[in-house]
Each structure stands twice: as structure tokens, then as C-alpha cells.
Specification:
The protein is of the alpha+beta class and 476 residues long. Helix content is 39%, strand content 19%.
Length: 476
């Protein structure tokens, strides 16, 4: 039958980081009471007029710049007509044939040989409201707080060839948008939503076969799972000669059952009857304005990664892990400025700090606290294992490490005079082990170390104990 390849294109809706909506002054704050952030404009009352939020254009242009797009100096808004209860005007103000950005790309990671995925367009539009379907009730509730929240829609070319590439694209896209302060990209709050189009064709063919759109994916992990499942479903139909069963449709991802399920079929592409928005003039973007926006772009993830490797001597892998989250990268830099020890700082960030984020929504310790903890460990005040116990306690308190070390009784014995006495007692009590060591049995040294640590209940500084033991055994 020959080999097949997977064709994937993504449509990503990104909520822009503005304080007010796209065409009115209502707040975009998430989590307010239902319909609290509304006015006659965003709930579509007759006779109201939209006024474009200039900050939306700023952020859309910035998105185009960080994603290597052409910024279109002349662009306009259009009415996209469709009827659905969450769209109060029965049309959405969007952009059709003259979007703000086009012809860009995003480069995937090294594991994909830096492959470039084309970006067809980036356009601005308003979000719709949110329907709440109640179980066992014959009514549906609607919350218009989200109606009018500004979005950019980022549409890729069908350049993605696997679920893994799609996952990498989304991770890198999210990181760039967060670093650029275009959006917080919180999927759990709907700030970033992704739909995927997927089809299968024989390797070597340039025909795009019937595609299926997948919705309802609320994390990058779920996008990856959904694409793998849909890819498997379509491949099986092709292999059994039943590809006619693949129809142009929208399927939703049922994460509980681990499969895609038909939502609605599309016999033909929707006719949205686009026409220019009569209440908003075309946007003319001058070169000077575009350059001004470009100057606001901060250091992007890959630039930061290369700087961490160059300035701090981190490995490519460690730098990649740290820059994967903007807050973590910023924390690391603050920590290094206090410890002056990039390697030790990166070790603690990659292990303990990232571990803590599995339990806490944000880094639960301050850079000052962790810097002090590292200082205590390096001075020999406590062991590294004890330091991990102190770190865990720091996560739930604003106490400094020195206080927690005292509270937990973890301070190491580093006094050579005191440890010499203890080591002498251990050697006197274990003459047989001493003889074993002298006869060349290396394990005896470990035994004597262990006895000393046991005697001090683990509080002895291992380095100091090792040094004293070696000196005394040489003299015996």
C-alpha cells in the first residue's frame, strides 16, 4: 500500500493582554460574576458603535514581529456572519482578506532539525460569550463577560507532520507570546485555545485529502493525545480501503474515553458572508509606528537561552529547561545575582524549584531565601540532604533558612576538635574494622564513616569526618 504521512495545520486563538475589551471599555478580568463585565457594545444592543482599542493593534503587530511575519500596512476589519447564542450581534468583527500580519514562520526545536512551520496569517477579532449547559436541565445559561475580549487568531500552514511537532510548536509559540508580554496564555482560563486540522496522504503526494477539525483540547498534552488518536483512526481507514468514511467534519476530543467524537459534519466550507465592517475605518500602519512597536520586544526565549549558556556557563540542556518558563528564568537570574554561583543555582532551580511547581501555582520561595539556603550548605552549616528538608519547609513559610535550620535541629557539626573526639571513640570501639582497613579492605573505611555519622545522628559534616578519618588511619 505504501507509506502514509500526516498533515496537520493549527488554528490558535490567543487572548491579548489588554485591560479592556477590543471595542468598548469593559474589563477583561477573568473570574468575575457572570455578565458583570458587559455593556451595550459587547452584548450587541442596537445602535451601539464599536471603537477600536489601539493596544490591540500594538499587540497584534508585536505578535507578527516575533513570529517573523510581514506586517500589512493597510488592513481592515470585516463582519463574519453566523448565528449562535454566544454571539450577541449574530456577527463577529474579525479580519478576512486583509489581516494585520501574514507570511510568517516559527522554528521548531533542535530535535526537529530547526524545521520552520509557516504561519499563514495573524488577524485580530473579538471573542464570543460562553454557554453553560446544565446537566439534567432543559435550559442553557450564557455569560457574556468573554464577549468582546480581544483575540489574535494565528493560522499555520499545513506544514506539521506529527503530533510531536504540533506539541513542540505550541510550546514554543506559548513561550514566545508570554516572553513578549502579548498574552499570559493560560489555557485553564481560555487565554490560549487550539483547534487542529488533520488529514492523511501517501508519501510523495502533494494532494491535500479530506481533513478533520479537532476541538475541545485544553492542554498541550491533550492536543498531542488527540492528534495521535485521530491519526491512528484515519490510518486504519486508509489501510482497510475505507477512506471514504473520512468526511469533512468537526470532532471533539473526549479525554475521558481517549478518542475523538463527531460534533458536526461540514458538507461544504461555511459561507460566513464576510463584508467590510462599516463602523470601523481601515487601519493604516506607518513604518515609524511599526518600528516603535519592534523596539518594545524584550529578550525572547532563544536569545535568553544562548545568553545563559554564554554568560553563566550552563549546558544547552540546563538552559533549555530553565528558559521554558519565563517566571523560572527570571527567578534564576535573581538567584544568581545573589549567590554568584550559576551552576549551584541552576541545580537547585532545575531540581527543587521545578519540583515545587508541581504542587504550587507559582514559585513558593523567594530568591533571597534560596540564596541564603545555598550559602548555609556551602559553608558546611547543613548537608545538602538537610537543605532539601529546609527547602520543603520554606515553601510554606516566609522564615529564612537559618531560623528553619535551628527549628528543625539540622545544624551540622563542623568543629574539627569535637569531631576528632568522636572519630577517636569510633576507632577505639571498632578495632577489627581498623585492621581490615590496614589490610586493604576498602569497605572498612565506609563502615567507619557510617558509624561516625550514626553516632552524630547524621549531623556531622561528612567532608570533615572523611578528612579526620583519613589522617588518623594513616597514623595507625
Amino acid at each position: 500500500m505504501g507509506a502514509f504521512e500526516t498533515i496537520i495545520g493549527l488554528e490558535i486563538h490567543v487572548e491579548l493582554g489588554t485591560k479592556s475589551k477590543i471595542f468598548c471599555g469593559c474589563s477583561t478580568e477573568f473570574g468575575k460574576k457572570a455578565n458583570e463585565n458587559t455593556c451595550p457594545v459587547c452584548i450587541g444592543l442596537p445602535g451601539v458603535m464599536p471603537v477600536l482599542n489601539e493596544r490591540v493593534v500594538d499587540l497584534a503587530v508585536k505578535a507578527g514581529q516575533v513570529l517573523n511575519c510581514k506586517i500589512n500596512k493597510i488592513n481592515k476589519t470585516d463582519r463574519k456572519n453566523y448565528f449562535y447564542p454566544d454571539l450577541p450581534k449574530a456577527y463577529q468583527i474579525s479580519q478576512f482578506d486583509m489581516p494585520v500580519c501574514s507570511d510568517g514562520y516559527l522554528e521548531l526545536g533542535e530535535e526537529f532539525q530547526g524545521k520552520k512551520v509557516g504561519i499563514t496569517r495573524i488577524h485580530i477579532e473579538e471573542d464570543a460569550g460562553k454557554l453553560i449547559h446544565l446537566e439534567d436541565e432543559d435550559v442553557t445559561l450564557i455569560d457574556y463577560n468573554r464577549a468582546g475580549v480581544p483575540l489574535v487568531e494565528i493560522v499555520t500552514e499545513p506544514d506539521i507532520r506529527s503530533a510531536e511537532e504540533a506539541h513542540d510548536f505550541l510550546k514554543k509559540l506559548r513561550n514566545i507570546l508570554v516572553y513578549s508580554e502579548i498574552s499570559d496564555c493560560k489555557m485553564e482560563e481560555g487565554s490560549l485555545r487550539c483547534d487542529a486540522n488533520i488529514s492523511i496522504r501517501k508519501v510523495g503526494s502533494d494532494v491535500l485529502n479530506t481533513k478533520v477539525e479537532i476541538k475541545n483540547m485544553n492542554s498541550f498534552k491533550e492536543v498531542h493525545k488527540a492528534l495521535l488518536k485521530e491519526e491512528k483512526r484515519q490510518l486504519e481507514l486508509y489501510r482497510y480501503g475505507e477512506e471514504h468514511k473520512i468526511v469533512q467534519e468537526t470532532r471533539r476530543w473526549d479525554s475521558g474515553k481517549g478518542r475523538t467524537v463527531t460534533m458536526r459534519t461540514k458538507e461544504d466550507a461555511h459561507d460566513y458572508r464576510y463584508f467590510p465592517e462599516p463602523d470601523l475605518p481601515p487601519m493604516i500602519l506607518e513604518e515609524k509606528y511599526i518600528d516603535t512597536i519592534k523596539e518594545t520586544i524584550p529578550e525572547l526565549p532563544m536569545e535568553k537561552k544562548e545568553r545563559f549558556v554564554k554568560d553563566y556557563g550552563l549546558s544547552q540542556k540546563d538552559a533549555e529547561v530553565i528558559i521554558d518558563d519565563k517566571a523560572t528564568a527570571n527567578f534564576f537570574e535573581k538567584l544568581v545575582s545573589k549567590t554568584k554561583d550559576p551552576k549551584e543555582s541552576s541545580n537547585w532551580v532545575i531540581t527543587e524549584v521545578l519540583r515545587s511547581l508541581k504542587e504550587y501555582d507559582e514559585i513558593p520561595v523567594s530568591s533571597q531565601q534560596l540564596a541564603e539556603l545555598i550559602k548555609e550548605i556551602k559553608s558546611g552549616s547543613i548537608s545538602r540532604n538537610a537543605g532539601k528538608k529546609v527547602f520543603d519547609k520554606m515553601c510554606d513559610t516566609d522564615k529564612m533558612p537559618v531560623d528553619l535550620i535551628d527549628d528543625l535541629g539540622l545544624k551540622q557539626i563542623s568543629s574539627e576538635d569535637k569531631l576528632e573526639e568522636i572519630v577517636k571513640e569510633i576507632l577505639d570501639k571498632n578495632s577489627e574494622a581498623v585492621e581490615d582497613f590496614k589490610s586493604g579492605k576498602g569497605k572498612a573505611f565506609g563502615f567507619l564513616m557510617g558509624q561516625t555519622m550514626k553516632e552524630t545522628k547524621g549531623k556531622a559534616n561528612p567532608g570533615v569526618v572523611k578528612k579526620i578519618l583519613e589522617e588518623k588511619l594513616k597514623k595507625m
